[in-house]
Amino acid sequence: MKTTKADTEAAAKPGSPTSPVLADGGGKPGSPTSPVLADGGGKPGSPTSPVLADGGGKPAEPSTRPSNFVRDIILEDIKTNKYGGRVHTRFPPEPNGYLHIGHAKSICLNFGLAAEFGGKTNLRFDDTNPSKEETEYVDSIMDTVRWLGFDWEDRLFYASDYFDQLYAWAIQLIKAGKAYVCDLSAEEVRQYRGSLTEPGKESPYRNRSVEENLDLFERMRAGEFPDGSRTLRAKVDMASPNLNMRDPVMYRILRAEHHRTGNKWCIYPMYDYAHGQSDSLEKITHSICTLEFEDHRPLYNWFIEQLGIFPSQQFEFDRLNLTYTLLSKRKLLTLVQEGHVRGWDDPRMPTLAGIRRRGYTPEALRNFCAAIGVSKTNGTIEFEMLEHFVREDLNKRAPRVMAVIRPLKVVIDNYPENLVEEMDAVNNPENPGAGTRKVPFSRVLYIEQDDFREDPPKKYYRLSPGVEVRLRYGYLVTCTGVVKDPNTGEILEVHCSYDPATRGGNTPDGRKVKSTIHWVSAAHAIDAEVRLYDKLFTKEDPNLTEEGQEFTANLNPNSLEILTNCKLEPSLKGTPALRGYQFERLGYFCVDFDSTPEKPVFNRTAALRDTWGKIEKREQQG
Ligand code: ATP
Ligand code: MG
Question: Could you tell me if residue 550 is left (phi over 0), alpha (psi between -120 and 50 degrees) or otherwise beta?
Fold first, then answer.
C-alpha cells in the first residue's frame, strides 16, 4: 500500500495533523504546510529582495564576502571555539527524485560554508522511506553534486547505514522510560493528537512497563505484527503547544524492500528520529535545513539530549521559490510520469539535470545562489534573475557563431557565381584571446526571415527593398527585389546587389548603414534542429489553480518549439554535447544529447534581450 505525498500534505494542514502511522517520507515535512509553522512561517509570495553580491557573486576573500545569518553563526562559533573551531556540514537529499534548483541553494550553502572555513561536508542519502527510493536517483544526485562543482571526498553516507545504531538507541530510550509501543490506529493517533488550539490526549498504551515495551518492540522488528498496527513513540509531552512534541512516532511497521538493506527490516525510523541522530553520528556541527523544519528543532534537540550523544545543532533558512517554476520533487515526478515533459532532464525542467541539458553552467548557478543569499523568511525569486546569471556567465565565455534558425534565401546577383571568400570573424568580443575564425561567404546566403520586411514598419532598419544593410563580417548589400510564390504570395528569395569595396563590413567612403545582420552561406551551411524553450508554466505561481484543477492546468502549451530547418555556419560541425555558443543576435544555445553528426540538435539556453520586441510592443500599445 502506498500513501501519496498529497495525502501527507493534505493531512499536514493546521487542524488535521499528519498521521504519524501512514505518513510517507518518514513523517518529514514535505512542504511549508507543516502544522505548527502554518501561521508564522513567512508568507510565500512576499518577495525577498535579492542583494547582488559584488556584481555577480565572484568568489571573494572571506573578509569581504557578503555575510548571512548562517555564516554569522558559524563565525561566532569559531570565535567562541564551540566544536573546537570545526565546521562540518552535510547535504541530506532523500533519493526520491532528481535534484532541482532549490537543492542547488542548499548544496552551495552547505559545501560553500564548509569550504570557506576549512571544514568538511558529507553527502548523506536520507533513505528512511523504502517505498519511494531508487538507485537511479542516488546516481543522478551524486552526478549532479559533482557537476555543480562540489566534492564530498570519502564522506558518502546513507541514513540506512545507521539502522542498527538507531535501533539500539531506541532500546536505550525504552529502557529509560522515554519511548513506548503504541497500539492506536492511525486514525486514533490523529484524534488523540489534538490540534493547534487543543492539547493532545495521552495514549492508553503510554504507561506500559519497560519490559512489555522491550518485548513488543523486539516483536515488531521480528515481523510479528501487520504493517501499521503498532508504532514506537517517544514519550515527550501530549500537552506541548508544539504538535511535533506530542509523543511523535519514531518507528512504523512497513514491509517494503529497501534499496540497500533489502528485506532485513520491517520497521523503519521516521525522519525526525533518524535525521538528528545521523547528524550526531557524523559529528556534524551545523545541520542546515529549510524553514519548515523550524518547529522540529525542539524534537531534534530532545532526542540528542535524552541519548546524551554529540550535540549537532540545526539551523533553518528560507527555501528557494522561483516564479513560473515548481520546486517539489513530487510534482516534478508527476510531470515526468504523465508525459508532460520528456523526462527528468527535459531542458524545461527546473531539475539540475534539465538545467544542465539546457546549457546552464555550474558557474552561473553558483553565482545565482551566492547572489540570492539566505534569510529567515520565505520569498520568491524572479525567474529572470536566474537567467541573468546564465547570460552573464555565457557572455564571458560562449564563442559567437552565426546561425539562421528561420531561413530566408538571399541571392547577391552581382557576386561571382563560383567565388567563395573566407571572412574573418571574431570568436568572442569579450575575450580577445579567443581569436578569430574563417566563415565562408558566397553568392547565395540565408538570413533570418525576421530580418527582411517587404513593407517595413517605422523604425525597422533591417533589410527591405532599396535599403542597404551590413552583412556581419561580409559586405554591404542593398535589396533590389523579391521573388514570390505566384500562388501563395510567400517570399521565396530576396535579391540584392553588393558593394565590393565594403569587404569585412567597412565603408571606405564613411557612409553609414543602420543595421548589421547575420547570415550563413547556403552551400556551406550545416542543417540542424533547434529547440526553443519557453517557460514551463503560464502562471507566476503554478500552484494557483481554479477549484478542482491540478497544477498541470497551468502548463504552458507553447513551452517547446522545434525548428527543423535551421542553417548553421560550418565551424559548428561535430560539436560535442553541452558545448555552449552564442548564436549572434539570437541567444545562447548548446548541443543537446540527442545530437548526432548527421543531425545536430541545439537547445536554446536563453534568448538575448529582445530590444526590437520591446519597441514593437510599445508601438502597438501606442
Ligand atoms: P522536495 O519538496 O522537492 O521533495 P525536499 O526538501 O523533500 O524537497 P530533500 O531531498 O529532503 O528534498 O532535500 C535535501 C536538502 O535540500 C534539504 O536540506 C532541504 O531542506 C533542501 N532543499 C530542498 N528544497 C529546497 C529549496 N527549494 N530551497 C532550498 N533548499 C531546499
Ligand atoms: Mg521531500
Answer: beta
